[in-house]
Design brief:
292 residues; mainly alpha
């Protein structure tokens, strides 16, 4: 028995070492790839592919200036920031009270409703893209008929909120369930209403989970491309990923691959900076929600 236990312990240590080694190797690969993309963004012409490991001759930001101006990356950056901030905030504001109600409700339907939100996470957006297009077309047509105006970014905002709600509700429901109920019971005995209990007691306690949901939602929306391609038709209203695709088409014909890599850096770096600044809170929020 001792020999068998030792053998299992050795196998477990080897498996753990292999997993750790794989994680470090994958992280190193991504860091090196990011570094190569940043260096390639300062190079000119097709030398990126003819001499891929060569260093740039100088740190000339001309590629960034051309990428920013050529394919409306500046406009796309503004639209992406606007949509991501408003849609992420709206999603969390809607998901948080819904998640709290589901986590504390004693109605039998609360469990199936939570499961329904979890099922929504597994529905690929590609499957429902046609019904969504028909729905948004009907909404925009009705808006034109009633008020004579509609903006395709509003359609994209509504879709961002709708498609982000299942994940946000599911995440926050688990987090609210992990919070103690003693403070709620004490507040109820003191005459506090359910809304006062939620807004003044549970909301402050849930800030780590809310921050985590907000950051994960924002990261997902920042990289979203399919909905922007389908529902945005004007360059002045395009998001950053859509503008990057336009930049790819432009740089493909001019062979300015350094400019394309500059556009990739513009898209990727803000999220890396955000994660570097708030990554600790993100991990803490996920750990608190899972560990209590």
């Amino acid at each position: 028995m001792n020999a068998l236990r030792q053998e299992k312990a050795i196998i477990g240590k080897i498996a753990w070492a292999l997993c750790v080694g794989f994680v470090f190797a994958w992280a190193a690969f991504n860091i090196l790839l990011l570094g190569w993309i940043v260096l390639a963004s300062f190079r000119k012409g097709s030398s990126v592919f003819t001499r891929p490991l060569a260093l740039p001759e100088s740190l000339d930001f001309a590629n960034y200036i051309n990428a920013w101006a050529t394919s409306s990356l500046g406009v796309g950056f503004f639209n992406s920031v606007l949509l991501v901030v408003i849609a992420s905030g709206s999603t969390i504001l809607l998901a948080s009270p819904a998640a709290y109600a589901l986590s504390r409700s004693r109605v039998r339907a609360a469990g199936p409703i939570t499961t329904l939100f979890a099922v929504g996470l597994g529905i690929p957006i590609q499957i429902i893209i046609v019904p969504l297009f028909v729905l948004m077309n009907a909404i925009s047509t009705a808006a034109y008929r009633i008020i004579g105006w509609w903006d395709s970014r509003i359609s994209l905002y509504l879709l961002y909120v709708a498609t982000s709600l299942p994940f946000a509700v599911f995440l926050l429901t688990g987090f609210f369930r992990s919070l103690p109920t003693e403070l709620e019971e004490a507040a109820a005995l003191d005459g506090a209403s359910p809304w006062q209990v939620y807004s003044k007691i549970m909301w402050p306690l849930a800030r780590p989970g809310v921050s985590t949901g907000l950051m994960l939602t924002g990261l997902g929306l920042w990289n979203e491309t399919l909905l922007a391609l389908v529902f945005i038709t004007e360059d002045s209203k395009s998001t950053l990923p859509r503008a990057l695709l336009g930049l790819y088409g432009t740089m493909q014909y001019t062979a300015n691959w350094g400019g394309l890599f500059a556009g990739i850096v513009i898209v990727v770096v803000p999220m890396i900076i955000l994660y570097a600044v708030l990554g600790k809170r993100l991990v803490e929020g996920m750990t608190l929600g899972a560990g209590k």
